[in-house]
Amino acid sequence: MLWLVVAALAVRQMAVVLRQPPGERLTDLETWIGENGVLHLTGSLYDSDRFTGTPFAGLVLKPLARAAEQNLGVVWTFGSLLLVAALGVVAARALPGPVSRRTALLSAPVAISLLMVSLPVRDALDLGQTSILPVLLVLLGCFVVRGERAPGLLVGLAAALQPTVLLFAVLFWLTGRQRAALTGGAVFAACTALAWAVMPGDSWTYWVHHVAGAGLGGHADGLANQSLHGALLRSGLAGPPEIALYAALAAAVCFLGLRRAARYAGDGQLLLAVAVTGCVAVAVSPTAWQHQLLWVLLAVAGRVGKRASDRLVWPAVVVLVLTLPGTVLLPNIEAVFPVRDNVLLIVALVAACAVPFLPRTSEHWRHPIPADRAAPAPARWSRVPLLPLRRVLSRPNLLLELLLIRVVYSAYAHVRLAATAGRATAEHHGRQIHAVEQWLHIDIEHRVNHAVAHIGPLRAFFDYYYATFHFVVPLAILGVLYVRRPADYRWARGTIGFATLFALAGFWLYPLAPPRLMPGLGFIDTVHGVQDFAKPDYGSLTAVTNQYAAMPSLHFGWSLWCGVIVVLLAPKAWMKALGLLHPLLTVSAIVATANHWVLDAVGGAAVVALGFGLTRLLAGPRRPRPVAVPAAAKPQDGPAAPVALPVQLPRATDDAVGGKQL
C-alpha cells in the first residue's frame, strides 16, 4: 500500500508540473535552456542574474541547451523523480541499526513519500532545479560506495555544484577519513579550476564579485533565502556590521555543528551526522533557497526524548515544517512574524547546534519510558476492528500539541472556505430550514432579532458576545485542562476535534444561508450592517470565511461542548452553573444577531453528541477503570483498597514503542 502511495504521489507530481502552460513550468530550467536562455547566449552566465549555479554547473548544463526543450521537460521531471526515489532508498538503508523487520520494510516507501511531499522537492520539481543531485551524491559517497577515493570524488563533485557541501570533506577529516577529505577537496578544486580555464569571466563574477553566488537570483533579504545572511538582512542589518556578525555566527555554527556531527558519526549514527552537516551548510550559506533545504528533512533520523510520549515530537516538527508553509504553522500575529518568516532556518539551526539527539548507548535509545495508559474499556464494540484504543493518561508534549492544533485549525479554515455551492443553493436551503421551523412553530428568529436590534445595550452585548467568546472560551478550557487534568484534556480535545470534523461534512454537504443573508425576510444584521446579498460582507474576514457555513452552528456546538466539559469536570456548583450559562448566551446571540437559525443550533448539538460518542467508542469512558492491587501487593497492616490509575497493566508483549514488560 505504501508503494502505491509513492506511485500515486509521483504521478501526481508529474501531472502538476507537466499540466502547467509552457511558460509557467520548469521556469528556472527554461531560463537556462529556453530560446533566450542564458546557456544559449554568448555573453556571461550572470549578466541577468537568472543563473544562480556555479560556473562548473553551467559548464555541465551547457550540452542540455541543444536538446529539445519540450522533450527535455518531461525527461527532466521523470529523472528528478527517479533521483528522489534513489535518495529515499539510500536514506532508508542508512538508518542506524539494529532495525526491526517492520522498519526495514516500511522505511523506504515512507522516506520517499516524505521526500515527495516536502517543500524542497516540490519546489525543485516545479522550478526544474538541480538541488536534489548534490544531496544524492553525498549520500552515495557516505553509504553506498566503498573505499576512500570514491566518497571523496562524489562529495567533491557535489561541492562543485553547491559550494557549502564542501563541509562534508571537513566531516570526513574529523571522523578519521583524511584521504576521503583530501580527495573531496582536490576534486572540488579541479572542477573549479576547469571552470576558471573555460569561463574565466564567469568564474570571476561568481567567486569574487558575488562571493560564492551571494546576490544572484532573488533578493538576499527575501523570505526565500533561509540562511543566516538572509535572516540578518531581514532584521534590518546591512553593510560591514551585518557581514561581521554573519561571519561570527557562521563560524560558531560550523564549530558546534561539525563537532556534533563527528560525535554522532562516531556513535554509529552516520545518517544523522550527514543531516547535521547539511543543516550547517544551509545555515552558513550566503543564500539557501527553499529547494536547497532538503538536508533538514534528513534530520528525522535522530531520536529525541527519553519518554515514549515525547519521541514523536521532533519528527513531527521537522515533517510539518518541511511540508507546510510558515503561514499555516503559525498564526497571523505580528509578534510571531520573525519566527514564521525564518522557521526553516530555525529548524536547521536547532538541528545543527541544539537538539539533544540520543546516543545509541543510551538506555532509552530502544526502550523509551512508556506512557501511562488506562485499562481497556469493556468490549461493547468487539466486532469493530482496533476498538477501543488504549487511552494515554500522561500530559502530551506542549510544543507538538500547539503545532498540531494550529495545523488542524488551518486545515479546518481552508476546508470551511472551500465548502460552498453558491448563493442560489444556499438560499434554497435557507427557505427549506425556514419552512421546517414554521411547521414546527419554532421560527422565533425574526421576533428575537427585531426585539434585540431596538435595544441598544442588549444589541451591543450580543454583538460582542458573538464575535468574541466563540474562540476564547474553548481555548481557555483546553488550557486549564492541559495544566490541571491532562488525561481529561486528551479526552476533551478528541471530542471537540471529532465534532468539528462532523461539522465540516455538514458545511460541505448542506451550504446554508443564515437569516441575515436571506432576501425578503426582513432580518437585521446587527453585527455587520446592511448587506449586499450578492457580495455579503463579514468585515475584515470576508476573504477567509465561508458565509454559507451555517449548518451546523459551531458557535453553539463549541459553546455546548464547553458547557458539558465544565459540568462534568468543575468541582463547584457555581462553576457548573456558569458553564451552562455560556451555551445559553451563545444560542441567544446567534439568533438575536440573525447569524443562525434555531435548527442550526440543533445541528451543532448533534455534531457535539456525535463527537462525544465517537470519543467514547475509541477511548472508552471518561473515567478510567481502576485496577485492583494484587493480593500479594496488599499492605499487611490495613485493609486493601483499589488503586486508581495511572497504573500500567501487565502486557503479554512489549509495547509498540519498545517499553519493557511489567
Outline:
This protein is mainly α. Helices cover about 60% and strands about 0% of the residues. Mean pLDDT is about 80; it is low at about 540-545 and about 625-660.
Q: Mind explaining what this structure looks like?
A:
This protein has about 650 residues and is mainly alpha-helical. About 60% of the residues lie in helices and about 0% in strands. The two termini are about 35 Å apart. The C terminus is likely disordered.
How far the N terminus sits from the C terminus, by CA atoms, comes to 35 Å
Shape by Cα distribution:
globular
Mean pLDDT: 82
The Cα radius of gyration reads 30 Å
**Total number of β-strand segments?**
0
The profile of the biggest β sheet is:
none
Count helical runs. Answer: 27
SS-based class: mainly alpha
**Assembly annotation:** single chain
Low-pLDDT segments, ≥5 res: 538-544, 626-662
**Fraction of helical residues:** 55-70%
What fraction strand? under 5%
Q: Helix-strand pattern, N to C?
A: HHHHHHHHHHHHHHHHHHHHHHHHHHH
Topology:
Blueprint: H1 2-18, H2 27-33, H3 55-61, H4 69-93, H5 101-117, H6 119-127, H7 132-143, H8 149-161, H9 167-174, H10 178-198, H11 200-209, H12 228-234, H13 239-266, H14 270-284, H15 294-297, H16 313-323, H17 326-329, H18 337-341, H19 343-353, H20 398-418, H21 423-440, H22 445-453, H23 456-484, H24 486-509, H25 554-569, H26 573-592, H27 598-619
Helix pairs in contact: 1-4, 1-5, 4-5, 4-7, 7-8, 8-10, 9-10, 9-13, 10-11, 12-13, 13-14, 13-19, 14-19, 20-24, 23-24, 23-25, 23-26, 24-25, 24-27, 25-26, 25-27
